Automatic annotation (TrEMBL):
PANTHER family reported in the protein's UniProt record: BRANCHED-CHAIN AMINO ACID TRANSPORT ATP-BINDING PROTEIN LIVF-RELATED (PTHR43820:SF7), HIGH-AFFINITY BRANCHED-CHAIN AMINO ACID TRANSPORT ATP-BINDING PROTEIN LIVF (PTHR43820)
Recorded GO MF terms: ATP binding; ATP hydrolysis activity; branched-chain amino acid transmembrane transporter activity
Species this protein is from: Mesorhizobium zhangyense
Record flagged with keyword Nucleotide-binding: yes
CDD domains the record matches: ABC_TM1139_LivF_branched (cd03224)
Keywords in alphabetical order: Amino-acid transport, ATP-binding, Nucleotide-binding, Transport
Biological process annotations from GO: L-amino acid transport
SUPFAM superfamilies: P-loop containing nucleoside triphosphate hydrolases
Residue spans crossing the bilayer: none
Designated name of the protein: ABC transporter ATP-binding protein
Family affiliation: Belongs to the ABC transporter superfamily.
Domain (ABC transporter) ranges: 10-242
Highest taxon above the source species: Bacteria
Amino acid sequence: MTATGQPVALSTKALVAGYERDLPIVRGVDFSIRSGELVIVLGPNGAGKSTFVKAVAGLVPIHSGATFLGDRDITSVPAHEKIRHGLAFVPQTENIFATLSINDNLLLAANILPKEKRSRRIADLYAMFPDLASRPSLRAGQLSGGQRQMLAVARALIVEPSVLILDEPSAGLSPKIVSEVFSKLKAINETGVTIILVEQNVKAALAIADRAVILVEGLLRHEGPAATLADDPIVAELYLGARHQSKAVAS
Ligand SMILES: Nc1ncnc2c1ncn2[C@@H]1O[C@H](COP(=O)(O)OP(=O)(O)OP(=O)(O)O)[C@@H](O)[C@H]1O
């Protein structure tokens, strides 16, 4: 599906955000993503990528500027309400309950839904994630890294979000598993879910993305189609030479 001509699904205007009021980390970001797009957020260590998506999700204080989900201003909407409005966020860590079963993880996430919709939605998710469906009583802590991420994604999808944001879902995974996780994300995107993905795994992420944006020191410094970005000299200068992922892109 091409997102050209689709309405804007999520946007930020001059977003300034950070953990302490006098210390902005995100320093005025204008960002937008169209419905159905898959956009990756790249940038050097400490650029503010995680802070940016956490601020959008309502988990880091916004100092000024605004965030919109479609036309709705969600800047001041608390994180749990944003989920109800269709904005789901998968944090990098602590995104599942390791001591609970797969099924209980999904049941807990489903609490946000009206009672009568819960079991139908969980059945839909099991259909989408057969690896989880095959052993619902397994403790989530016993899952492999990739399967844990899939459980975290399944939990986020409970509300049938219009926009799904993921903070480095590939962290700590082997290249083979990264490619499985990314294929699944692409498949989810192809069902119409708009996806924003913070990634350090540049090559694999560019392969599934429509577009990439590059944050440097809290500012959106560059953006472009994923297909051409890896060859872009500005990108190479700003980012690809700046960290170990340069190897992955060059290979
Ligand atoms: N909980 C926190 N409290 C205070 N400062 C933080 C916190 N988390 C991150 N920071 C600071 O915010 C800045 C940006 O960090 P952030 O994690 O957003 O960057 P990033 O681009 O996602 O980096 P990485 O690629 O290393 O994950 C860093 O200087 C970091 O030290």
